[in-house]
Amino acid sequence: MIISHRHRFAFIHNPKAGGTSIELALATYAPFHTRIQFVRRIIHRYARDAPAWSVYRLHMPAWDFRARVEKRREKDYFVFGSARHPFTRVESLFRYVLSHPEHEFHQRARSCGHVDDFAEWYGTRGDGSQFQSYYLANRQMDGLAVDAICKQETLQEDFDGVLRHLGLSRIELPNLNRSRHVDGGRLSDHGRRIVAELFAVDFQLLGYVTEDELPPMREDR
């Protein structure tokens, strides 16, 4: 998560949807302690919790951020996040987890062996954080809590629009977190049906379709 109190914006980091690239691009606008926090996460890839002195978590949902700033009577932040098609997000996460033995889901992904099985397990986790809507929607997940979404399929274009809205200069996004090819890393038709069913809230709220013909895949960020 990147917050600029000077420019009154907050970026919500939805995992595996181009968020690291946007965080890196915006880090210069963040308070110093937030920049240090971001550097710590780059060095220690899976340090999920923010330092004790920070009230903002690295993957704080938009509804949580808005509740905190409203409590402080500060409501004029422009809040935006990133998203990607649920099919490619699950595939990317599976490849990424398998390529990083230190990841908390690594053993589970190995035991699944195929992204179809991983998608079924991941989509039925109980805490709700498997859904992109958990980060970008309100607490009930029946409406968006962000002002704009940068979709991974058009990430630079959407990010350019956000920067124009904020009155900031254009920033070229770096290409980070590429996932390596792994066997069993592509959803089958059956796997797509599983994702379409389990992640229906993301398809609906984020405006994605479930048809097999998707936009051309971009490199992971």
Order of SSEs, N→C? EEHHHEHHHHEHHH
Q: Calculate the mean pLDDT score and round it.
A: 83
CATH topology: Rossmann fold
Domain count, please report it: 1
Give the radius of gyration. 17 Å
- The overall strand count is 4
Instruction: Name the CATH class.
Output: Alpha Beta
Q: Note the beta-strand portion.
A: 5-15%
Which overall shape is indicated by the principal axes computed on the Cα atoms? Answer: globular
- Classification by helices and strands: alpha/beta
What's the main sheet like?
4 strands, mixed
Distance between the termini: 16 Å
Strand order of the largest sheet: 1-2-3-4
Low-confidence stretches: 42-55, 215-221
Instruction: Count up the helices.
Output: 10
Helix content: 40-55%
CATH architecture: 3-Layer(aba) Sandwich
